[in-house]
Design a protein that fits this description.
Helix content is about 5%, strand content about 45%. By secondary structure, the protein is mainly β. It has one domain: 4-Layer Sandwich (Double-stranded beta-helix), CATH 3.60.160.10. InterPro entries: AIM24 (IPR002838), AIM24_sf (IPR036983), Trp_RNA-bd_attenuator-like_dom (IPR016031).
């Protein structure tokens, strides 16, 4: 039986953060190199790892995240291996080498606590949304794990002159230096019960990437706050 299960054993540690399969991330924990992760995302760990839900530093930065009820994050610290997942969603691991990423808060699974981060209004959408859309911006040197409802596609907006348009319900993340604007259109799918008739898209232009998931689940929508 052990030989039959050997193929599911974790590979030797090769990086701070790496995938174990498509639906789980393995994090090599070290003292002094803390991690911020979504509350409830821990599925297993080896060694000595401690958890502090909604620590004061996180609460201070993210008091306006999504609903104003507090950031759903926990601080993870210690030594060992930590395994995280989110209800079987695909996990995408990114090493930010001095770069920045604007992430839909519902798709942010974990990131190094050493990264700079905060809640920011998405520029260019105030008139389009009526109130405004908010996102989580992370930047610096460190690792980030995102979730996707299915295998995502990464669109390079700098490859052509045409703008890239994305349904907000399918949007995971994008490069913050991209120009963003909103667009209204009639979605034919609404005729068979998938909408109210008028749909919104987010348009991107410039040098950078957009990460899109194959899902239009409205629970993943960018949260709107007044």
């Amino acid at each position: 039986m052990n030989q039959q299960l050997a193929g599911f054993a974790p590979a030797p540690v090769a990086a701070r953060m790496e995938n174990h399969g498509h639906h789980m991330v393995k994090v090599a924990m070290q003292t002094g190199n803390d991690l911020l992760a979504r509350v409830g995302s821990m599925v297993a760990y080896e060694g000595f790892v401690q958890y502090e839900p909604n620590p004061p530093a996180v609460r201070q930065i993210a008091r306006d995240w999504i609903t104003g009820e507090g950031a759903p994050l926990m601080k993870c610290s210690g030594d060992g291996l930590l395994y995280l997942a989110d209800y079987g969603a695909d996990v995408v691991v990114i090493n930010l080498a001095g770069d920045s990423l604007s992430v839909n808060g519902t798709n942010l699974l974990a990131f190094d606590a050493s990264l700079q981060w905060g809640v920011e209004r998405v520029k260019g959408l105030a008139k389009f949304a009526g109130q405004g859309l908010w996102n989580i911006k992370v930047s610096g040197q460190g690792w980030v794990a995102l979730t996707s409802r299915g295998t995502p596609i990464v669109v390079d907006c700098g490859r052509g002159e045409d703008e890239t348009y994305v349904d907000p319900d399918a949007l995971i993340a994008w490069s913050p230096n991209l120009k963003v604007k909103g667009k209204r259109s009639f979605r034919a799918g609404s005729l068979i019960g998938r909408g109210s008739g008028e749909a919104y898209q987010m348009g991107f232009s410039g040098e950078g990437i957009v990460v899109v998931q194959p899902s239009e689940d409205s629970t993943d929508r960018l949260r709107i706050r007044s």
